[in-house]
Write a structure and sequence with these properties.
4 helices; 0% strand; flat; 84 residues; mainly alpha
C-alpha cells in the first residue's frame, strides 16, 4: 500500500479523531517526511528496521541533528510506526 496515502490518513486521524495539536502533526510530518524521502520507499511493505535506523544515523551525521532533535524525532517514531 502507498506510504504517502497512509501517512496522510495518519495525519488526519491524529488531528481529527485523536485531537492532537498542530505542532504535533507538524512533527509527525517531519519525521515521516524525512524517513520517506531519505529511504526512497513508496510502499509500506518496504519499511524495515534497517532503513529506519539508517534515517536516524543520517540525521545525526549528515544533517547534523542536535541531540534534542534526535531525541524528539526518536520519541515521535513509536507513535507513528505503531500504526503500521
Amino acid at each position: 500500500m502507498d506510504i504517502k496515502l497512509l501517512a496522510q490518513r495518519f495525519y488526519e486521524h491524529s488531528a481529527y479523531i485523536r485531537g492532537f495539536a498542530k505542532p504535533t502533526i507538524r512533527r509527525y510530518r517531519y519525521v515521516l517526511g524525512s524517513y520517506i524521502n531519505h529511504s526512497k520507499i513508496t510502499e509500506i511493505e518496504q519499511v524495515s528496521l534497517e532503513n529506519v535506523r539508517d534515517v536516524f544515523y543520517y540525521g545525526r551525521t549528515a544533517r547534523k541533528w542536535s541531540v534534542n532533535t534526535f531525541l524528539n524525532t526518536l520519541l515521535q517514531a513509536p507513535n507513528i510506526y505503531a500504526h503500521r
